[in-house]
Amino acid sequence: MGYWPLLIVSGNATSLSHLEPFEVQCLPRDHVQPIVLNVRFNDHCFTTGFDPAKHDPLDILPSLLVAKTEKRVFCPDRYNLSFQLPELIKAFGGKRIASTRDGNLVRVERPDGQSYAIFFTMRKHSATRVNLFVVSAYPIGPGKKVAYTGEMKFDIALAKILRGEKAKFPNR
Question: How far apart, in Å, are the Cα atoms of 116 and each of 44, 88, 121, 136, 142?
């Protein structure tokens, strides 16, 4: 069995195999050798919060898929966009990331002009490994913005994490 169990949505089996944990090499700023990012995903990449005005209580996902403290339901939009996540993360190397109250953020412009927000945390695992956890990923609706305090390049943040420093972002 994989990291994610098979998800049953409206009686249909829905695979989450594209969100299996993976490793990718990445070169931190001022490093000669690449390090390994251990990447894992949270259920927020394919679910949304339960809203009694919009959702049937029978659609609440079981706690083996989501945190026991949250009521979440399957979100087709987030699920469909989540297929892009592994490739987008593999391309973080030179991207600018922002700091938000929810963690770090990468915004990706989609072909339709909308933004896709990827929120993640990073923690040093060893001298040559960093754990990257994708907390959430969702489309940002037209006219909506995500508040952030500053930004820097991903490779700089990665180097800081490896040195045991906080990735303190400069003010914007």
Answer: 13, 10, 17, 11, 11
pLDDT digit string, tens, across residues 48-98: 999 999 998 888 888 777 777 889 999 999 999 999 999 999 999 878 888
Q: State the pTM of this model.
A: 0.90
Distances (CA, A) of 18 to 22, 90, 92, 124, 152: 10, 14, 18, 24, 28
Kindly write down the DSSP assignment for every residue of 84-152, as one continuous string: THHHHHHT-TT-EEEEETTEEEEEEE-TTS-EEEEEEEEEEEETTEEEEEEEEEEEEPTT-----SEEE
